[in-house]
Each structure stands twice: as C-alpha cells, then as structure tokens.
Specification:
The protein is α+β, with helices and mostly antiparallel strands. The protein has four helices and three strands. InterPro entries: ClpS_core, Ribosomal_bL12_C/ClpS-like.
Length: 91
C-alpha cells in the first residue's frame, strides 16, 4: 500500500471517529414561536436569527437539528430543552 493510500485510509477512519451527535427539535402544537426562539437562544446559544430559522424549519418540516457536538456536551442542553417543554432528542 502506498503512503498516499495509507494516509487517505487513515483520514477516512478519523472522519468516522469524529462523527458528532445532534439535538433534534420536534414540532408540537403547544409552544409558541417566541418560547422556542427564546429557549434556543438561552440553551443552545443561538443568535436570534438562528433560533428564528430553526423554529420556522421545525414548524414547516416537523423537526430540525438545533445543535451538534459530543454527547457529553449535548445531554445537559437537551435536558434543558425538555424541561422548557420542548420536544427534543439526541441522535
């Protein structure tokens, strides 16, 4: 195996290891846009524009990835979203 092939193989293996989890936010008929937006700003550190875009995507598409990262960092954020009455899960 050439050095170039080995390097490419190592790079592909590293990409697999670096795959991150994501918090998926789901649509519901309970929470207002303002509540969702304010919660995303507070919990996920979104800008107002990001939070508004996510809330629109959730409303029309049914779900949206609102945060990616290592599970250890996402778990407390997802818990806070759930405590605020939003529907979310980590994938």
């Amino acid at each position: 195996m050439s050095t170039r092939e080995q390097t490419l193989e190592d790079l592909l293996l590293n990409e697999d290891v670096l795959l991150e989890n994501e918090i998926i936010l789901f649509n519901d008929d309970v929470n207002t846009f303002d509540h969702v937006i304010n919660t995303l700003i507070r919990v996920c550190k979104h800008t107002p524009e990001q939070a508004e875009q996510c809330s629109i995507l959730v409303h029309y598409k049914g779900k949206c990835t609102v945060k990616t990262g290592p599970y250890k960092e996402l778990e407390p954020q997802c818990s806070q979203l759930l405590e605020a009455g939003l529907s979310a899960e980590i994938n």
